[in-house]
């Protein structure tokens, strides 16, 4: 076999024939040929079929989780309904037993002095056989406190058969006289009851009041009564005997004790009375003998002076 090598090119003789190559081609390193064999798929991304399969599996898993949660909650709801139904049936069956077990058999009333115990029980209006747990204490309290003599009431349920009522009565503070009729009042001006023509000489007396307005709860009249009672309490600490106050004019309350009259204005009654106590030693002619001898009229309605007069 002959080779011919020229300056610019050369020929390569192969089995298929001759092929002309350049000089550079002779010295270039050839890449190794891939081994012969069947063609392989070289796609490196996720396949479309596999992605759809995973999505379907996730969807089925979510649906299964929802069904399980629904079944759990359905079980809880059914269980609660069954328990509630069992409680209702149990209460219906055991109702007579509990009613007998908690039936009120004793009503205790504490704190009554002027009232009778039975009056308070009648206010409760308790029916026979009433169980203790059926009692609404706030409603009983309101009924008891509706009585004019009762200022405050406390209602307690004492297991297993006792209802206990503790009351605080109002204290009579004065007799309110209008004409021939007398009524009792406490220090807050609440009407406690009628005395008709009877009287209670142990209590001070307030006159000059419109009885109809007082019984209706007129606020102005009530305040006049309260001022009159306050005045009797102040003067009663110094002078004995029964005090009387005419409260017809709130700007001129007239208090009488043992033949001497005191006039009080609309200011603070306590301040006016204190002013008189300071000058009392100077007024030597003031007599409380009840016969009208000497000075028997004291006017305290003025701010900076006290006027004493002799009524003859």
Number of helices, where a helix is a run of at least 4 consecutive DSSP H or I residues:
7
Low-confidence runs: 1-24
The proportion of residues in beta strands is 15-25%
Mean pLDDT: 81
Strand runs, count: 14
User: Order of strands across the widest beta sheet?
Assistant: 8-7-6-9-10-11-12-13-14
The N- and C-terminal alpha carbons lie at a distance of 181 Å
What general outline do the C-alpha atoms trace?
A: elongated
Assembly state of the chains shown: single chain
Largest sheet: 9 strands, mixed
Question: Helicity range of the residues?
Answer: 25-40%
Describe what this molecule looks like in 3D:
By secondary structure, this protein is of the alpha/beta class. Helices cover 36% and strands 24% of the residues. It contains seven helices and 14 strands. It has helices spanning 23-27, 48-101, 117-124, 137-145, 211-216, 219-236, 269-279; strands spanning 9-14, 17-22, 106-110, 150-158, 162-169, 172-178, 181-186, 191-196, 205-207, 244-246, 253-257, 260-264, 297-299, 307-309. The strands form three sheets. The chain has a nine-stranded mixed sheet. A three-stranded mixed sheet has the order 3-5-4, with helices on one face. The longest helix has 54 residues, at 48-101. It is elongated, with a radius of gyration of 55 Å. It starts with 8 loop residues before the first strand and ends with a strand. Mean pLDDT is 81; it is low at 1-24.
